[in-house]
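DATA SHEET
Item: assembly model
Revision: 1
Owner: S.N.
Input lines:
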Amino acid sequence: MKKQMVAMLLAGGQGTRLKELTYTVAKPAIPFGGKYRIIDFPLSNCTNSEIHTVGVLTQYQPHLLHQYIGLGTPWDLDRRDGGVTMLPPYAEADGIKWYDGTANAIFQNMKFLEAHQPEYVLILSGDHIYKMNYMLMLDFHIKQQAAATISVIEVPWEEASRFGLMETDDQMQVTRFVEKPKDPKSNLASMGVYIFNYQKLKEYLARDAENEDSSHDFGKDIIPAMLEGNEKMAAYPYKGYWKDVGTVDSLWDANMDLLDLDSGLVLHDSAWRIFSSNPQLPPQVVTETCEIEESFINEGCIIEGKVRKSVISQDVHIKEGAEIDECVIMAGSVVGKGAKIRRAIITPDLDIPANFKLQKNDGAITLLTKETIENWEGSEDDAFSSSN
Amino acid sequence: MRLAAVIDATVTIPGLKELAMYRSSASIPFAGRYRLIDFALSNIVNSNINSVGVFASQQSVSLMDHIGKGKSWDLDRRRNGLYFLPTSQREGDQLSVGSFAALEDHLNFFNKSTQPHIVVTCAFSISQLDYNDMLEKHLASGADITEAVRDGECMKSYILSKELLMQMIKGFRENRVVSVEDVVNLKKKPYTFAQYEYEGYFVLINSMESYFNESMALLNEITWRQLFLPERPTYTKVKDEPPTKYMKGSNVKRSLVANGSLLEGEIRDSILSRAVEIGKNSKIEKCIIMQKCVIEENCDLLYVIADKDVRIKAGSVVHGTKEKPVVIRKGSIVSEGEEL
């Protein structure tokens, strides 16, 4: 059946800068906000934007993602027609072909797109926390009569050189795309969200596939090639919260943004809900001994200790006398009696022993893992509290 | 599969009328994020029973909305699964469990089911009863009907053969009995009876007093752990609420808190359902605040049960007592100085 727009969600990345968090799961499956996984955001954006056909391209550690997304029921993507389709690499008569670059991943799934015959293709990545109505972007794309539209967000000038930047004219037409320039002439960063006219996309992907020098990447190859081909390229100015959570620090930052009333990241919003696969857990219990300040806490938790400015996932137990400050605690972890932890991301199902201390004062964010616990020497002068 | 289950949701709970004005007794909220029927349904699926008939009274919209096709309990199946069976019974007509008049309305449920034994239970008995174990003991006893008891108290859950149940339904007028519970209480001849001894969490919600006290008992972490067993989860309708946000200035102690709430006030010894808002400087003590209630700033609530969608305007003071909590009806708006 012919579709107006089909979304292709690139979820194959490892995200090595997130270290141990991605040893066993792909980056889009990383927990966020006490209840969600990163991929819930683009998937929910699709549902809320009434895009009902979504291909999810997986490659690195796909098991959890496939299991998590399942038939797409939590996002209302279990549709008779369309819905969510998981697209891992596959084998053909001449062997298995791993996805080699973002553009190549889409190119290898042209059969999927052909079956739907969309007018437009929306390319998304599973690395960002944001709420966005893709239909407004499509309206813009159509109005601009562009071959491709790239969603951009204004970033602070001092940070601009970390991003892929779009230079535009006053009609928001892209004149130049530069990847991480030393001397930025624009502060409009690409959000990794693209809309292509399907026929143009097909044409450029086929041409790119022939090019042996290409890295088969949307940002590095396809967008520059289209600019070179004098295609009409528009930049869609997105206003709102958007964060790339590709590092431990930025993942922590984005979680903390949930506690900041001015950050623009609001999840208590019934008009634009973020859907998620809900585990069935009882309400949280907070006891007589607890002290909770400015925190985000999910179901199934037992809070007996002190919690300040933290985001706590389901099924976490914080025992009496424990002190948690500016932490992100992932599901199923137990914080032992008297443990004191500051500025850390605590990985899932961790058993933190009583009186464990991690209270750095240098502002750095620690990724607290099983290894950290095993290496902990248990005394006052251990490696982690030495900077006190 | 040897068991099918019947939940008699036509039973009225005396004393809970205030909370059942706009809903079936079976869908009265309990323990923050649940409805009473969730516990019966969860016990059934945790006992691997996958054929369930929910016999509902006429006032069944909220119940139907809550359980839908049984997706949350994994009961939306091609074969067997959940059967929502509205009956001609009105709320208030029926006080005992396994009403033959209600079951008679849907004899087809029994005709079609392939399971030889039937669990008959209700929505206001809350436990972690394992019906498979109960069936084993029932079969070993050789009795016609087994009732579950804890410390001698009847749990209002029964097992009997489908054949016998259908016989009883066909002859109940002649035999001058009204329900399975009635038959068991009268020790009606010629049937033989056995008891299944259950240990573990069990409460009967059969009055406003038991509703309030058993709700509050869950604030005790030990009781909470007895009811919420990780290996036997209690399932409910999924709502996709975000985690609860404790705002600056909030002070929450000894409470049960569901998801989606925004808490700014001082909260003690209370149960908060999903998506509740408690404003700045408001004091909530020994209260049950249901889904989507908004308590504005500077309120003072003690021994209050606020039903769903209640709004308490800024500065309101509402005090009940332990013996007689103030019940605020669904959707009401309470303003400062209003007498309740």
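QC remark: The mean pLDDT of chain B is 95.
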